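Write out the 3D structure for:
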Amino acid sequence: MTDPWHMLSEEERLFCDVLERLCAERIAPRAAETDETARFVHDQLATLGGAGMMGANLPEEYGGGGISAPALLRAVAIVAGACGSTASALTAHYLATDSILIGGTEAQKQALLPGAAEGRALGAFALTEPTAGSDPADMKTRARREGGGWRLEGAKCFISNGAVADFLVVYAVTDPARAHRGISAFIVPKGTPGLSAGAPERTMGLKGGHVFTLGLDCHLPEDALLGGVEGQGFKTAMQVLDNGRIEVAAQCLGLAEAAMATAIAYAKDRVIGGQPLTDRQAIRFMIADMGLAFQSARLLAQDAARQRDAAHKGGGRFSLAASMAKLHASEAAGRIADTALQLLGGYGYTRDFPVERIVRDLRIMRIYEGSSEIQRSIISAQLLA
């Protein structure tokens, strides 16, 4: 069989191999406990920081790994296959650091990105609001000039890492008359007076990757404005979300592969009436369907990752590919995990196997970073243009 990751360099392969061993030894064994206790994945992120994974999305000049987008896709999938909660917190951190990389001044990049790449500073990306989830142009959070700086007021919801992050990139309206062109972004350090957070949301899955509601009534210095220019926030956020949607696809690949591997191993070992499950045609068809869904999702995600690299070199966009990858991978992974649970029968419904947890962890993938319905709107708009 052709190596599905043949496009990676030898150095990238080594990085992924080391990461895979590390995740198998130090992160996967804690996944069930993390789900049961709902403790935030501080230790797991520290482990990833030591492996260079917290800055894998960043170029070497800012302390990052400088790896290709296909290699990042593979690396995030490895982490997700070990623990969905850890991957969720990791990729939320990427959204914050990508915001600074794409939209920040050189001084902002130098001040924040090296520490974030080393795992010394955790980031959060604060875009979603109670009335402005999939439509950021309708956000109500406002920022206005005050006392030589900015007064930031509003509320955000479902913010991954929100209360535990060392810095947040908060998106707010600075000019309501300009709609989405009047959105700017601000860097808000942890402990800023007027920044408050509720308790972690009680979520169905990804229980160790906490999400929060945030309150904002803060005074920020002038240089908190991301990029030093008003009105660039919406453009930055959309570019960040193009990246993030491929990383959601990566999470889906990792979780789906873990579910599929569990189901196949179970089917090989399980004997009923003196006959292995794998001898039964119905079971073989289930395995075939999982394999087909997984392969198609992986190919779309790899194509989107290649387009991401090409776009970053040439300054273009890859929104269509990112939306297709995110939509297909999230829906395919849900089917794969459900099929895996069905194959395990009653055991699949118990917590003795990881598939039950994976089913719950995957459900949010069809909602965050733009729901499946939003992805279909993006895809159809581009195809009709």
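The radius of gyration is 21 Å.
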